[in-house]
Amino acid sequence: MNVRIEESWREILQDEFDKPYFENLVAFVKYEYAHAHVLPPGHNLFEVFNRCPFPQVKVVILGQDPYPTPGQYYGVCFSVPEGVPIPASLSNIFQEIHQDLGKPVPSSGCLDRWVEQGVFPMNSVLTVRAYQTGSHRNRGWETFTDTVIRRLSERHDHLVFMLWGAYAKAKIPLIDTSKHLILTASHPSPRSADHGFFGCKHFSKANAFLKQTGQKEIDW
Question: What is the value of pTM for the model shown?
Answer without folding.
Answer: 0.97
